[in-house]
Amino acid sequence: xxxxxxxxxxxxxxxxxxxxxxxxxxxxxxxxxxxxxxxxxxxxxxxxxxxxxxxxxxxxxxxxxxxxxxxxxxxxxxxxxxxxxxxxxxxxxxxxxxxxxxx
Length: 103
Description:
Layout lengths: L4 E9 L4 E9 L4 H8 L1 H4 L10 E3 L2 E3 L12 E4 L7 H18 L1
Parallel strand pairs: 1-5
Antiparallel strand pairs: 1-2, 3-4, 3-5
Family: Belongs to the UPF0125 (RnfH) family.
Pfam families: Ub-RnfH (PF03658)
Protein name: UPF0125 protein GCM10022277_30080
């Protein structure tokens, strides 16, 4: 008897593009398995499924090799932040303050 297949999505974005790949995987597959099966690494060779942070619908998953993916889930691959969000907010506030002082 053939294993049941489920439909999931694997998503990755760069500043230039966003890709969401539909993937059919066997029920019981892990998030990691779905990412590898998706072939996204062929489109984005910088992705290393062994170390890239993953999540489902915006919620980080600590152990993607152990978490089973469910029908309809979107697995997201996260790039490292270029700047800490607190530092970015402080930079914006400083620029706004400087601009206001010039006005």
